[in-house]
Amino acid sequence: MVSEDWIRKAQTLAIQFSGNAAKHDREGTFPFENFEALKEQGFLSLTVPKIYGGYEISLLTYVRILEILATGDGATALGLTMHLKIFGSEREAKSYPEKWFEKISLKAVNEGSLVNTVATEEGLGSPAGGGLPSTVAISTPQGWRINGKKTFTTMAPLLSYFIVLARIDEENDSYLANFLLTREDKGLIIEETWNSLGMRASGSHDIV
């Protein structure tokens, strides 16, 4: 069942976002004000489980909201999709450590923190194709050290959390693991490389 309250809110925001959408795309600027509005209206918690204070909306409502927001600004809708799908997917798959998921869920609800997966690399494309990333994680006495470069990091100018896919090499094998990085982590650099017509405002830059 679709929640009509959220639909009405999305329709209002879509009109608001449309006012600056062309300007943001033309100038390649990030729509910080759009995400502030989404935060104020509770949209950043839509798919967060209720046990963490989220709304846990249905898939149908989720899709309809994004469809409406995209009529106002496709780049903003894309960014919100990337953020919300993590919580919706994890509710079903439970692939991340529970302490991770609780942390990013509470941060999304209480502070409006944004999160996205960071997996794609130049020359590799999506890891779903079966390739191993060149980004490597090395265990040290101080913790894990991650070296590599990722592309298509949507919402890079505003993300609080980056879920980075990296390769761990062992003597006879290699395997994949996800690492939760924060914006403040030492050595994390955002390279502003993104310049894709129609989606410039998504801020899908590279990270190193």
Automatic annotation (TrEMBL):
Pfam families: Acyl-CoA_dh_M, Acyl-CoA_dh_N. GO terms for molecular function: acyl-CoA dehydrogenase activity; flavin adenine dinucleotide binding. SUPFAM superfamilies: Acyl-CoA dehydrogenase NM domain-like. Residues 118-207 form the Acyl-CoA oxidase/dehydrogenase middle domain. Keywords: Oxidoreductase. Residues 20-87 form the Acyl-CoA dehydrogenase/oxidase N-terminal domain. Transmembrane segments: none annotated. This is Acyl-CoA dehydrogenase/oxidase N-terminal domain-containing protein. The lineage of its organism: unclassified sequences, metagenomes, ecological metagenomes.
